[in-house]
Amino acid sequence: MSGPGGPHGEAGGLLVELLGDKLVTAEREEVDVQSLCSRVSMVGLLFGCGMSAPCLQELAGLTDFYRNTRDRLEIVLISSDPDHKKWQLFIKDMPWLALPYQEKHRKLKLWNKYRISNIPSLIFIEASTGKIVCRNGLLLIKDDPEGLEFPWGPKPFCEVISGPLIRNNGQSQESCTLEGSYVGIYFSAHWCPPCRSLTRVLVESYRKIKESGQKFEIVLVSADRSEESFKQYFSEMPWLAVPYSDEARRSRLNRLYGIQGIPNLIILDPKGEVITRQGRVEVLHDVDCKEFPWHPKPVVELTDLNAVQLNEGPCLVLFVDFHYVLRRELVLNLWKMCWLYSTSFSEIQEKKQ
C-alpha cells in the first residue's frame, strides 16, 4: 500500500486537482477522489445533460459497457443541467459517479479544458497522469463494447488505416502504397454544406500539389448516412477513400484523431505523424499551395479562418495599430517572444505527459 508520497498518493493528487476532493453516487453517497487511483487505471469523463435526447439515448449502451469494465475504470459525469432537480433526475439510475451539482465552477473549467463542443462526449484519461487516452470514448465503446482491447493505447496511422482503399472508378489499392507520401485524412460528408464547399477547393489544391511533383494523397473518411450518398459525393473526388462498408475502420480513424466535427482535414508527414490538424484552414488560406505541407507557424495573422486555433491552447494575441509606424526590430522581437513562448509551453506539456 502506498503512502501519501507514493505513486497512488501523487496520482490521486492529480485527480483531486482535476475533479475536487469528493464525487457522489446516484444515492448521494460521497466517494473520495484520492482513492480512485488505487482501484482503477483509467477515468472516463462523461459530459452530458439530462435535457439532451442524444445523451439519454447513449446511456443504455454505456451502462452495459461500464458493468463489464468497472474493475478497471471509473466514469464520472460532468453535467450541464441547469437546476438541481433536473440533475438529480439525470443521475438517479446511473451506476457511475458524478461531479457534485454545486461544483459549477469546476464543471466549467473541465468543459473548457477539454474543449467540449457537443454532448454527449466521453473522454478517457489515465488515472495516474491525467493524459488523454481517447477523446472519442463513445465511438470506442461502439467498436469495443466489452472492453476487450482495454487500455486502448494509441496505434500508429499505418496500423489503423491498414486495408484496401478505393477510387471512384472502382479500382482498389492497398494502404501500404501511402508509405513515403504526405497524406491528408479528409473527414467529410455530402449532407454537410461546409464539406461540399471545402471539397470544391480541395480538388484544385490536390491537383496543384500533385502537379508540383510532391508525393501527396488524400483519403476520404466518409460520415455519409448511406452508401448511395457516399458514392454520389465520392464521384466528385480524384483521391482515395476508405470503403463505406468498412465502418469499423472509419470509426477507428475518427477515434485516432479525436474528430468531433466535419469537415476536418488532418495532414500527415511521410512517417504518418501529424503536421497540422488545421488542413481546412490552410487549404482555404493558401489557395496556391505554396506553403504545403503547411507546417505550423509560431506567428500568424489572426483571421476568421484560423480563429478556431485560439481554442486549442494558450495563445498570445498582439493588437497592432497600423496608423503608426512600427520599428521593424520591435516587431521581430515580439515575434521572437511569441515563438519562445509557444516552444516553452509545448515542452512543458510534453513533460507533463
Automatic annotation (TrEMBL):
SUPFAM superfamilies: Thioredoxin-like. GO terms for molecular function: thioredoxin-disulfide reductase (NADPH) activity. Keywords: Cytoplasm, Developmental protein, Differentiation, NAD, Nucleus, Oxidoreductase, Wnt signaling pathway. The keyword Transcription does not apply. It is found in: Cytoplasm, Cytosol; Nucleus. It catalyses: [protein]-dithiol + NADP(+) = [protein]-disulfide + NADPH + H(+); [protein]-dithiol + NAD(+) = [protein]-disulfide + NADH + H(+). PANTHER family: NUCLEOREDOXIN (PTHR46472:SF1). This is Nucleoredoxin. It comes from Pelobates cultripes (Western spadefoot toad).
